[in-house]
Specification:
about 150 residues, Globin-like, 7 helices
């Protein structure tokens, strides 16, 4: 497995926009990704326990706004995702690896190459930041903590 931190030059937003990155593409990625997540035996239950079926449209809009802000600079996301993730006691490295594997699969399937690479690089930084914050919150020792490794999907 390749550590998530070992990556080539990260594409710019301008390069991804030139390939067609827009809010519609972000929405397609988010919706397809969460369709796969909800069906996944490892991370699906984490989401099902916290998001009722009738709240999924709202959640998808919020996550679309997050990625639109992260990639396109729309500033449409105003939430604070860390407290929600800190409260998930069972959340661990296996969940983050699977989340990233499904995410890579989704963007590789739906997006042009540079756009997928941009999504992947940002998702890996998000996952590492969440992982480290959760570990600190739990009082884990972070010295020499290796980065996440990549998991294949499926």
């Amino acid at each position: 497995m390749i550590p998530a931190r070992k990556r080539r030059h990260e594409p710019t937003t301008d390069e991804a926009i030139a390939e067609g990155l827009d809010e519609a593409m972000v929405r397609r990625v988010v919706h397809r990704f969460y369709d796969l997540v909800r069906a996944d035996p490892l991370i699906g239950p984490v989401f099902h326990a916290r998001i009722a079926d009738d709240h999924w449209p709202e959640h998808l809009e919020k996550i679309t706004a997050f990625w639109s802000s992260a990639l396109l600079g729309t500033r449409s996301y105003t939430g604070k995702p860390m407290p929600k993730h800190l409260a998930i006691e069972e959340l661990g490295d296996a969940h983050f690896r699977r989340w990233l594997a499904i995410f890579r699969h989704t963007v590789t399937d739906l997006c042009p190459e540079r756009t997928a690479a941009l999504f992947i690089a940002r998702s890996e930084r998000v996952a590492e930041a969440f992982r480290m914050n959760i570990a600190m919150h739990r009082g884990d020792i972070l010295t020499f903590r290796p980065p996440l490794t990549r998991e294949d999907y499926p």
